[in-house]
Predict the 3D structure of the following.
Amino acid sequence: MAAKHFVGALCLSAMLVGAGGAQTSAAAVTPTPAELHAAAMPTHDDTWWKHALVYEIYPRSFQDSNGDGVGDLNGMTQRLDYLQGLGVDAIWIAPMFPSPQVDFGYDVSDFLTVDPQYGSLADMDKLIAEAKKRKIRICLDWVVNHTSDKHKWFEESASNRTNSKADWYVWNDGKKATDAGVGTYQKKFEHDGMVPPNNWESVFGGSAWTWVPARKQFYYHKFYVQQPDLNYRNPAVEKAMFDGMRFWMDRGVAGFRLDAVPTLFEDPQLRDEAETGGVNAQGDPNLKDTYTSNLADVHAVMQRMRAVVAKYPGDRVLIGETYLPNTAALEEWYGGSRRDELQLPMDMLVGFPDRAGGKTLSAPYLRQYITEAETELHGSQPLFVFDNHDNERSHDRYNDGTHAAEIDKAIAAVLLTSKATALMYYGEELGMPTSTPTRVEDVKDPIGVTGWPKEKGRDGERTPMQWDGSPQSGFSSNGKTWLPVPGNYVSLNVAAEAADPSSLLNWHKKLIAMRRTMPALHDGGVVMLDTANSNVLSYVRTAPAGAKAVVVSLNLSGTPQTVSLDLKGAGLGSAVTPLLASSDGLMGATTVESLMLPAYGSFVAQVK
Ligand code: NOJ
């Protein structure tokens, strides 16, 4: 234990020195008592992330501080007071590392510094320090599966077959185009008489294998051609990536969101994926994803990664980008009952029902998956998310054309009154709509160009944050921003919503404040109510001793519904004091015996 603390103290000291601007290696520093006091951070037993609201920032789009039309780190620092006022506990910054920006930062060419268009290491140190003053932690997006093809590791690896990084990526000789069993799809990618070793496809279109003449071999890339996959069967790769994590934790970073982490390993036998019929937006045959995603080998890496993170004080956190088919698969990412892998793999089932067969908001669907998250994770902490930089915003995904404002409020209520850790995406608190380009020549996201018009890319959910009614919505002083500011900013912005008591922003603020201050929402259990109801999702957050329970009832249908909630099962009576409701009439309710909820109406009340 003592040794653990000592290591931690050294790292903290390095972080403080780093925060002041100078770069000092951890081992060279002896912390002074004053430094240690100033650095006081929670102990290993603190589980801040269990109650956290994590807020994703897409760095290009949050706040431009230098007038180049692109957001940056100093812009984020300028907006910390807003985030503190909202009640954010941690920020996840989408990749801000040097990058050719083919995939807007998810093609990293150097993991150990900041892309000059976003600022400098000193700016990052300042952001970490200023955020810490406001009790906000900074998490980075660790693009763990691949690098840019312009990373020096790949440039060396691709130069010949004998260099020191020769085995850092996934290389293969391929097959002769004339070999038996080579399919017509593979033949499309022939070079020098050779074709890819199998039918695997890039998520972003085309074969997942690209030919390099200097090696006379193919390399594997799950994503763009410019994003070669690292070879995690080589321990040197794992070490380099873990060293990078240490570098940032030494500077005070509180954790990482692990990008595309289920895709670290591929089938060593390189078996063909089965076709499922038809073609996707990029024109490639639809395939199963059995041999390049969620292979069991990944879990040993996650266990070792957790051990690296656990050596640091302050309960640093691992968040996973884990699109998984069911709760049982999700559970494995925690390390099951051992809980020795990620603390917070994302539960995408709750927030992205289209991936589990559902399309619209549905009470039975949410009831099922919230219950599974509560009961089938060995007590591990779920992480719910409804929005991110890769998907049409929830405001549009769930919009029925009539009740968008009420639906946004109901989603916020699910996210913030559940027991799960909450993840939000900038602009979600405003109900910022998706603003998809209408002409292919305006599209910035490469998949939107190659997939047009079936796939229009992800620009729509990445437009600049709408701060106020001034030109460029207060995002930038430059008239030409990297993506246009949507015209609706004139009325839909932070300043306007802050001034409107019934706005979605103020709805979020109230929910977040309740979640932070009310023991039932902070720590209480969950009991589902009225479980046969196919339109209304109702539950009670039971209270720890001495506190009051909170009941939540959300009409997830487009017609008014009346519910009669029986709280006896939770040992409670039916008299309530309303806390928050989407319509004024509901604020007069005194019991939940006969509660009339308008279409998509939300009701949150304290049980007397
Ligand atoms: C998932 C990220 O969220 C997405 O934006 C990116 O394109 C892929 N991973 C590849 O890094």
In short: The radius of gyration is 25 Å. DSSP finds 18 helices and 22 strands in the chain. The domain at 48-146+235-508 is CATH 3.20.20.80 (TIM Barrel). The first helix runs from residue 2 to 19.
